[in-house]
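Quick one: structure for this chain?
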Amino acid sequence: MKALVAIKRVVDYNIQVRVKADGSDVDIDGVKMGVNPFDENAIEEAIRLKEKGIVTEIVAVTIGTATHQDVLRHALAMGVDRATLVETQDSLAPLAVAKVLKSIVEREQPSLILLGKQAIDDDAGQTGQMLAALLKLPQATFASEITIADQQATVVREVDGGTQTLSVPLPAVITADLRLNDPRYVKLPNLMMARKKPIETIALDSLNLSLTHSVKQLSVAAPPERPAGIMVKDVNELLSKLRTHQGIIA
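Got it. Here's what it folds into:
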């Protein structure tokens, strides 16, 4: 069984981003980048399935410029077998990303397609669902547990009321939640070896896709600063403040 894992390069989750002076976007010049955390859970799950003998080959794919090879090499260092970069200078919306991934899936013919449930930069959480719809494949989102047997994937997913268990036939699209696993620590020797491994590069234009940009980003602004808190000496003063200043209680 082949597994394909789609990953995205995002600003490191420990970094607090700043908005550009012109409000056009966030400023990522010189900022530390890395694998989207949810996608790292997807990579880890594919590797664990391979260690169990269920998956025989893992292919990682990302979309972006040549600088995006760093997240592919991280995936290779974790244990992915092959890596593919769909090279483009454009920033693609979720639907366009799904169309690109559909083309790669049709080329690779995996039995299992894994993605993170969302990316921490835009928090859209749409690509996996759109990909499944384009491929006309079953999907299971927000997976916190995956079991594969007899060409079926049993997925435990978190919903508002608790958890839900689904069974979907393979091939299928599954999106990973953070609770799915704890990604392994990548050792320096593995990273060094990953630097020597080949990465297949495919020009986006060569896929002959019609990618229309139906969403336009107008501006980006930082959230308003929260007002400073106040100290009160006792409960009576607290209640008085809530009544007179906040209007929380009558």
